[in-house]
Design goal:
By secondary structure, the protein is an alpha/beta fold. It has helices at residues 4-16, 33-40, 72-79, 88-95, 140-147, and strands spanning 23-25, 47-55, 58-65, 84-85, 112-116, 124-128, 134-139, 150-152. It has one domain: YbaK protein.
Length: 157
C-alpha cells in the first residue's frame, strides 16, 4: 500500500516511545478531520490533525483538534520564532510525510512541536499515522509525552 514506509516509521516511533500499536487503516480515507472522524466514528474534535509551518528551514508541526483552525500568530508567539505556511513538497521533504498523513511522530528530521491545549481535555484522540488512510488512537497526554511538544492555546477565536 502507498505510504507503507511512512506508516512503518510511525509504527517504529510508537514502539520506541512505549506506545501501543493502535494504527488502523480506513480505505475510505482520513485526509481531512471530517473524513477521519467519519471513518473512525468519533467527533471531529477528537481528530489530532497535523498542521505544518516553516520556521526557516525547520518544520513546525502543530497537532491541533480537528475542530480548530490554527492561528499562526499564536504558534509563533508560543514558540518564539516566525512561522509561515509550508507547501506540500516542502512538507514531504522536511517531515517525510505527505499532507494528509503527517504524523506527530516518526519525522525524518526533528520538527519544532506544539500541541493544541484543547486536545488535553478530550480523552481518546486519533492522529495521522503516516498516510491519508492510516490513523492511530492515543491521548493528548500521550502525544505530549511522546513528542515533547509544548501545550498552548493555538486556535483562531
Amino acid at each position: 500500500m502507498s505510504g507503507s514506509a511512512s506508516v512503518e516509521r510511525v509504527r517504529a516511533a510508537l514502539a520506541a516511545a512505549g506506545h501501543a500499536d493502535t494504527i488502523a487503516a480506513f480505505p475510505e480515507g482520513t485526509r481531512t478531520a471530517a473524513d477521519a472522524a467519519a471513518a473512525v466514528g468519533c467527533a471531529v474534535e477528537q481528530i489530532a490533525k497535523s498542521i505544518v509551518f516553516r520556521a526557516g528551514e525547520r518544520a513546525v508541526v502543530v497537532i491541533a483538534s480537528g475542530a480548530n483552525r490554527v492561528d499562526a500568530a499564536k504558534v509563533a508567539a508560543a514558540l518564539g520564532v516566525g512561522v509561515k505556511r509550508a507547501d506540500a513538497d516542502w512538507v514531504r521533504e522536511a517531515t517525510g510525510f505527505a499532507i494528509g498523513g503527517v504524523a506527530p511522530v516518526g519525522h525524518v528530521s526533528p520538527p519544532l512541536m506544539l500541541l493544541d491545549r484543547d486536545l488535553m481535555a478530550l480523552g481518546e484522540v486519533w492522529a495521522a499515522a503516516g498516510s491519508p488512510v492510516h490513523v492511530f488512537r492515543t491521548t493528548g497526554d500521550e502525544l505530549a509525552r511522546m513528542t515533547g511538544a509544548a501545550v498552548a492555546d493555538i486556535r483562531v477565536l
